[in-house]
Amino acid sequence: MLKIEDFDSYYGQSQALRGFSISVSPGEVLCLLGRNGAGKTTALKSIMGIVPPKRGRISLNGVDLTALPPNRIPMHGIGYVPQGRRLFSELTVRENLEIGLMTRQTGAEAMERALSYFPALRERFHQRSGTLSGGEQSMLAMARALCIEPTILMLDEPTEGLMPSMIAAIRDVVVKLREEGVGILLVEQRIDAVLPVADRIAFMDHGEIKVEMEIDAVRADTSILKKYLGVGH
Amino acid sequence: MGLGPYLLLATLEGLVQAAVLCITAAGLSLVFGVMRVVNVAHGEFVMLGAVIAWYAASLLTGHPALGFVVALIISPLIVGAIAALSERLILKRLDYNPEATIVATIGLLYIIQQSVLILYGPDARPVDPPFYYTIRLPWFGYSAYKLFVIGAAILIMGLIWFVLQKTRAGLIMRATQFDRETAQAFGIPVDKVSAYVFALGAGLAAIAGILVVPIQQAHYLMGTDPLLLSFIVVIIGGLGSMSGTVVAAILIGLSDGILSMMFSPTLAKMVSTLLVALVLVFRPNGLFGKAAR
To answer: pTM for the full model?
Structure first.
């Protein structure tokens, strides 16, 4: 189980996270929802150590990861698909996946497993990732993260800018991963993107988790969406 | 000598200069590409390489090739170690801040330069080439050592290409170059990569210094010209672009060599500077450069 307790994170003097606490269990999808600037992306970056929290504690399956440098966090099995995919655009599809393999010194079997979720990538194996379509880039970003064989996978708006068929394909993979016992922390802005896959939703505002609800409770009380996302449903 | 042979001689001299420049600028480009640090002390690593080559040649009596080979082995290691230490003690502590590291490497330049002045002295000292052989052409004789320098540069640049494109270390360097933040998220220790790359860049500069010292003597101020020309090369080629560095080094080396011989060294420097200005105006990222993330 991934457990975050009382993260306070800053950009310079500006506080971006305030007492941020969540937990993600194996085989569970927790969604972070909130408006632009609510602190969702910062939360993921703080978990990865890229924006190191000034206060708080992070542990995975009881192992304390708090003091680890950013490059050691993924070695414990936390996979990350950053916002905007952040592929190494000059590198080929294969090289991007090899970067994923470096993390845990895993071999070709891990790459094969990752590609089994996105077989279309095999045809683009030697193509520069910057020349892929948006959908293919999203698939590659997820496959790269899956190469580390994560126990926790963090996805930052993986469906952003994609057409509906591609959104459905990514959703299917998320469901499959959940069934396989991977804990998923999903950041989204749109409620319709998370309703079909989420088990719980945490609503964020001004760097804080305002409320955390089971998905059935959100479905039953859609006024919460108006309050934190400014949308009706 | 007729114009044709004279042009051939000037071209050969230009190619020798391009060869040394290619290795020097490759180090500078690699450091900027991966670390985003403009290393103003880079020329001093060339000078250190040359000075160590002089010490090796002086201490190891016998055939000049012995001192040359020993220098080729130990000089990049010593200079690389000095660079790695500087990276740990200075650049890392400045968090690789672009402006702060420029000032810091200016300081490093003076520390290295003045230390060499104290320990080695102000004199320019010659180092014998590892072999004396003159290739007799119908119009003039040409030093085989200078052709060896061109060959060595081709070999080294090929090696750099191989390491960057075909090895795990190269993949790590390229990933760090493209996006440090994401590289960290995939287990790459970007700080360590920076230390290794800074040492590698300095080691390449040292090799350039060893190759050039039998042609132009070791002197504590000899780092200035390679630094300026390397900056010209990496700006024209595109900061961080290795292929751009090679093309620009050949362009600048040839133009500098030919113009210096046919007209005057001053005109050659004016043309190089004009090229930089034109590139900065019309292609600010250089001929092969790309905007960094």
So the answer is: 0.89
